[in-house]
Amino acid sequence: MLEIRGLSKSFGGVKATDNVSLDFADGSLTAVIGPNGAGKSTFFNLITGALRPDAGQILLNGVDMAGKTPPEIVGHGIGRAFQVASIFPSLTVEETMLATVCADQRRAGVMHRRFPLAETRDRAEHAMELLGLANKRNRTAATLSHGDQKLLDIALALVLDPRVLLLDEPTAGMGTEERWRMIDKVRELWEKQKITVVFIEHDMDIVFKIAPQIVVLCYGRILATGTPDAIRRNDAVIEAYLGSEDHAGAVA
Amino acid sequence: MTELQAGQGTQPLEVPRIDARPQRYRDVLIALVAFAVLALLPMIFGSKSLLDFVIRCSAYGLFATSLNLLVGYTGLISFGHGMFFGLGAYGFGLMMQKTGVPIPVAFVATLVITTVVAAVIGAICVRLKEIYFAFVTLAFQMLIHSTILSWQSLTGGDQGLRGGIPRPPLLGIDLSNHLHLYIMSCALLVIGLLLMRQIAQSPFGYTLRMIRDNATRASFIGIDVWRAKLTIFVLAALFASTGGMIMALFVSGAYPEFAYWTISGEGIFINMLGGVTTFLGPMVGTVLLLILNDTVTRLTEYHGIVLGIVILFFAIGLRKGLMDFVVEWVAQRREKANG
Question: Which end of chain A is less enclosed by CB atoms within 10 A, N or C?
Answer without folding.
Answer: C
